[in-house]
Amino acid sequence: MDKVSIITTEDYSPYLLDSAVESHFQLLGLDSFLHPGLRVTLKPNLLMKRTPAEATTTHPEVVAAVGRALKKRGITDITLADSPGGLYTVGALTGIYKTCGMADMAQREGVQLNYDTGWQEITTQTQRVTKFNIINPVAQADLVINICKLKTHCMTGLSGGVKNLFGCVPGLQKPEFHYRFKNADEFSDMLIDLCETVKPAITFVDAVVSMEGDGPSSGNPIHTGLTLCAANPYALDVVLCRLIRMEEKQALTVKASFERKLALYYDDIELVGDSQKINSVANFRMPATKSVDFNTRLPNWMQSAANFITDRWLVPKPVIHRNQCIGCGKCAESCPAKTIALHKRKAYINYQNCIKCYCCHEMCPVKAIHVKRSKLLSS
Ligand code: SF4
Ligand code: SF4
């Protein structure tokens, strides 16, 4: 039976986090994965330049505590690596490490920050994708430790253990996957292939302060006071759904992992640690996009017409609030359909080509892109 550990972690104090990480290691028997001499890569969520208080990225103190636990076990070759949204360059990484608090943390804790922007092609035996380009520090590690942030996500519903691994794909190769897998279910199924390729040994969740609403970058921080951990990222995501009261079918990576029989149902997962805390989080606000979900209840013969109507008129669309737009071009850079243009330092979307992937919404640094529900669905 897969185990998932939950530990009360009220804030980011190092002593609380050290104690929480040690509890996770003991409860899950994680020491069996670890021995001196291993080359370990820590994979946090560093989506964009945001401060730790904004709850968009993994808090540096959680990464620090995992690093200290590894050092205690004689592991000294520890690298922090992620390919954030946008460009994967030394300049972009430097800015993100600094703003996200990772630069200070790494210097203090003796963790190496990755500046190698190369990647390796890895051939897979997975269902949808035959090869992935994976950033070097992840491809070359003996062991990958995934350290995600608990967030809602406009496209996939949940950003947990599986979704966090999308940052193993280098830079602007990520929008290419959005374009290749335009349908959110297919995209989420591709993420399962990616998870099967990266195979993180351990996944930690920073749910001390999480993000609710229009995540992964435009939601609101919410104090949830927990850390979670598991060896199986699929089981972990099932537990995250239960924690935030999200229906499993709305978390598309969870839905895909059930379809592939990679995840156990919630009742078959053993919760250890402060398991009663599974009922501690109330009223988690869902993303605006999680409102269109009736097509699957229609008979098969009605579904293609219903899908057409849904795509055309009912799927929430990204809307740019031009008074907030600073003309940085990040949305256009990350748009897989190349359907955003800048005019006089303001961004404009040509909706004819928009595939509703919400990458633009995700990458806008000033939250100028909102996800707007159809008037037909607004109450
Ligand atoms: S405009 Fe935004 S939602 Fe539409 S395809 Fe481009 S990035 Fe995706
Ligand atoms: S909408 Fe946001 S990301 Fe796009 S140009 Fe304006 S500020 Fe930049």
UniProtKB/TrEMBL annotation:
Keywords: 4Fe-4S, Iron, Iron-sulfur, Metal-binding. The keyword Oxidoreductase does not apply. PROSITE patterns: 4FE4S_FER_1, 4FE4S_FER_2. InterPro entries: 4Fe4S_Fe-S-bd, 4Fe4S_Fe_S_CS, DUF362, PSI_iron-sulfur_center. SUPFAM superfamilies: 4Fe-4S ferredoxins. Residues 316-345, 346-374 form the 4Fe-4S ferredoxin-type domain. GO terms for molecular function: 4 iron, 4 sulfur cluster binding; metal ion binding. The keyword Iron applies. Ferredoxins are iron-sulfur proteins that transfer electrons in a wide variety of metabolic reactions. This is Ferredoxin. It comes from Hydrogenoanaerobacterium saccharovorans.
